[in-house]
Protein 1
Amino acid sequence: MTGGATDIKSLDLPGIERALAALGQPRFRVRQLVRWLYARGVAGFDEMTDLPGALRSELAERFTLGRLSLSAREVSADGTRKYLWELPDKTTVESVGIPSGDRLTVCFSTQAGCAMGCTFCATGQDGLTRSLLPGEMVDQVLGAAADMNARVSNAVAMGQGEPFANYDATLGALRFMNSPDGLEIGARHLTVSTCGLLPGIRRFSAEPEQFTLAVSLHSAVQSTRDVLMPGVARYPLDQLREALATYGVRTGRRPTLEFALVAGSNDSDSELKALIAFCRGMLCHVNLIPVNPVTGSDARRPDDARVRAFASALTSAGIECTIRTERGVDISAACGQLRQRHRA
Ligand code: SF4
């Protein structure tokens, strides 16, 4: 059934268009094929019953159809579900489904592992295994939707990996998620969270869709940020600020600045002052995230009073800010923890 060499999940929409054109197929077959792959999530070409039998056979000769299989699942008392998926080559990735009222947000991974080496992150401690294919990202969202028996309202590239280190595949995946033939998630409800790869932010500013940008800032003091996030030490904060300001001007959109608060590291008054100076005069929204403890890391969360003091100082300075409510704290909540545990 699947004798080809290329996984069809490696193709973005233009790739599928080219593949079907090369087989002499009319354009409407593109939408049919995308629907089978990314709305219905079928397991094989033979299930694509509105495609002619000869086309199904040709597709099966030329392509494999890779599938994720569920390797582990944890369900939190608050309804959050964490998934560990096994890919066809046996590597594993995590995603999280977070229900909230009538909304379901899925946080998906863009890479297996990550090369960025952030010191507070379980994934960063393990290095990069490989980048994911567009379809492997969409399938994490489809898999969570099926397991939770709900429509996904929001998807966030905030799991394992740096999305802009896998830019083209990530954008390809977002477009399938956004497509009326795929998951039909509104572009503004699709978010990319980067640790600050400037070439990616600049490209993203020029994309035609209204996708949402989040940047892991974690410190507006260069020396602190270089220690917390060594993988982006080559992109200085002044250049990051300039790229974000340009993004705001070009898109009219407000990027979110993620700030994971680590006690004794980035929760001091001087850190707060630098954060306010970084944000002032720029379209942005600060999301404060008290860190979850991670096995193998000595990062500790500040007490609640300190977190509230950060939030109120930002608000007083006219900077929009929220404190992220932690979800799934009774399961392996931080990214990389489930994968780490199941390998131990
Ligand atoms: S926080 Fe994100 S970018 Fe940093 S190491 Fe972890 S997965 Fe990679």
Protein 2
Amino acid sequence: MNTPYEQLGDEGVRALVDRFYEVMGTRPDAAVIRAMHEDDLAVMSDKLATFLIGWMGGPQRYNERFGRVVIPAAHQRFDIGPAERDAWLACMQDAVDESALSPDMRARVMDSFGKMAEMCRTRD
Ligand code: HEM
């Protein structure tokens, strides 16, 4: 079980993303980033899950379904400072903590999310 995808599978990654957006809808510190998204998260959930399935070591289907994406560039139009980055990571931490990932895989995944989220920051 060397990759997060091996531990979660498609279903598990999709459940993680659903939980992530559920948490984003309830945490007060995430209200600002929730408001950056559409009211209806169905398309975004599908996009993020499809992206993460590939990113976590599973099949790479994002490009064929949605086109090429460069994650930092996809965030350039948003106002993302340290508080917004940390709120995103806090929602993901909650979802990861409730997932089927092993404790050491949780730490590895959160480390990678931390680096990626930092690259999405658009201001100090
Ligand atoms: C740093 C904090 C972050 C914030 C505030 C944020 C917020 C957003 C928002 C508002 C959107 C657009 C939603 C829409 O079109 O309805 C988006 C798109 C997306 N985000 Fe993030 N995001 C963050 C970090 C991340 C990270 C770390 C990843 C990947 C590990 C990620 C992956 C994606 C993907 C795949 C899309 C879809 C891109 C597209 O439509 O072209 N985001 N994000």
